């Protein structure tokens, strides 16, 4: 149904987020009804437009009576335009409310399936296309977008070239058990698990690059830290050694957190995030070797045999000892990737690093200095049973002008989860893909 | 082989692009040998570091004789560090050259396969990981990165939220003949052809969004305008109508061109691009309806029956009539997507738009106002034989708060090709994927 207004909508369209700049002016907001409450001759419409929510007060008699009644019984999430005078109001979120003098119902909604009562996660995920409208979900996606901008600005302003690695690859970079296979015109191809090797070719051409795009892992495990499709950021820097990579990772993460703190206060509030935890994320971050971490775990009664990887509880313990992210470096080669450079002072070790987020959010960065040595890599490819022909181009990077170089990979959704204080990374991407989960 | 310097390398590391800021200072450049020429007691090393190329002059006697001789016979693309005094030199690209007083060979290259002679495209594509180092290829990728930044800045600064659409989808958005199928834990899934429908859900939650990520088309045709994997930008705006979408598309394209002109002069020079062609790309762009375009073609002796789509030669003719991109709007529904809103003044027409680049670079933008009408879309889904169950979530967007909205899609590589003046879009993405082409 549509009920036309008897008064005229303002021709000045404003976004809710900017309303404080329009106090005492008459503006129009285009949005959706988030909630409606009536009290005698007043209607309190909560109107959201995607940038924020504003309370709009309608006094009976201001509008045509039919329209007033239609608004009063309008289902949530109906679309509408309201216009009126913006008034400063310190009690309101955003500091303003609107005194309505004209309104138009654009599209009356059917009974909205998401209500104030508790819904199961399965139900909400099945309605992900609508759940995005909820204030916490929308806040998470706005913070995600701010983090993406922060990442790109960090690299763009420092001379890195954005280099998009291919999604279709002939071979696995990080092990074959979690590969998605595609029918590529009758031949098998695989979806990328990491753009790093391509990033290395890019760094030899352009000096400093970053790959930023989707990556895929056919993870059969259902954990709160895994998605089958996620976004990964992978800088790669020619002439960088391990210490350079650690310094960059530290400055980079601190910059992201500081940008979100500067620009996303309303979103952090909507998420009830304890911002003091984020304000603590200032360089320098604690650094320790793998071997020191093993000793630290042992002293706390958590025995991990030297040469084995940490489990998530071990990482959680280590991260609980600091209110900043921690950098762990020089992991044993036994469980690290074939291309990592060995530590010249102990050949059992790689020149690798992981960064563990505080508050139990786990690993957010993994990286290393890469081996620049052709013979070593040829041996590694053979020992790891990798298909040599698929790696010839990668070996060319050592045949023609090899240089020390390194970089890291950061899983975007894990960082969004940590910064937002969200337990499950499935809420940190607009349309999560998991085992048995591909709709909507 | 490594020959250590007898003199010491400068501790100030500078990028070639920034050398003009270091005139009369002693700095170190870390890079690769692009070319070497000797003339009596002088060596002229062209050193590239990914940000640019600088001529480095070595005078015999300055360095150890062994090192001088090693540099003289050093293969191209060997990696090396040189340091010395930066001197202003108007004849040099970048306006500087370096007078070398110390050098170090980092990694001597094997005989480099790409030389100054003509190579076949097949050969260069097989060596894409090395071809990226060539000055035109590197310039193209730097312009690509600048365009990506320009796109994101355009939207980020105007209140759009970056919304990443999924790569795995249950159904086709743009027709089923060009879908890539993936084995998703035993069930078929498809790689996305467009994020638009997800962008629409995002616009209802966040007001204005843009999707920017890879998209896939199993194109069997080998043309210079097609890739199987490409990057697509898709803004979607709640409460926008066709004219709004056209205005945005025009301002957006003009902004990208103007940013590249401002920041990428060395790259445009390397590509020998006629920048006057780009300087002409200033709003307003010519606009015409599909029907007017048909008449224009007919007047030029190019008969296209009303109701049929234009071919590439028709678009090339239309674009040749203007030195700016042209906007064609209101195409017949017969060959346009199911979700487009019909023109209320003529139901045979959609409220659609295409933008055709100048100089024969073809369609770079396609978009429309979307239908906000539930019943119309239900009918369309049935008539187009689309799997209704997969579109229920999309129909929910009309059930719950439908609003006028619209947007467009832009193929990134086509815009890079046009701006760079590159004939084939395979050179406009770091690692192109085509029929029979997945290596490296």
Summarize, please.
Chain A has 440 residues and is of the alpha+beta class.
Distance between the termini of chain A: 28 Å
Oligomer: homodimer
Given as residue ranges, the uncertain stretches of chain A (5+ residues, pLDDT < 50) are: none
How many domains of chain A, as an integer? 2
User: Architecture of the largest domain in chain A, CATH level 2?
Assistant: 2-Layer Sandwich
Features:
homodimer; 440 residues; alpha+beta; OB fold (Dihydrolipoamide Acetyltransferase, E2P); BirA Bifunctional Protein, domain 2; 2 domains; five-stranded mixed beta barrel; 13 helices; 18 strands; elongated
Explain this structure.
Two copies of one chain form a homodimer. The first copy, chain A, contains 13 helices and 18 strands. Chain A has two domains: 16-107, Nucleic acid-binding proteins (OB fold (Dihydrolipoamide Acetyltransferase, E2P), Beta Barrel), CATH 2.40.50; 128-428, Bira Bifunctional Protein, Domain 2 (BirA Bifunctional Protein, domain 2, 2-Layer Sandwich). The model of chain A has no long low-confidence stretch (mean pLDDT 95). The two termini of chain A are 28 Å apart. Chain A is α+β, with helices and mostly antiparallel strands and 440 residues long. In chain A, helix 4 (135-156) packs across helix 13 (412-420). Chains A and B meet through strand 1, helix 3, helix 4, strand 6 and strand 7 of A and strand 1, helix 3, helix 4, strand 6 and strand 7 of B.
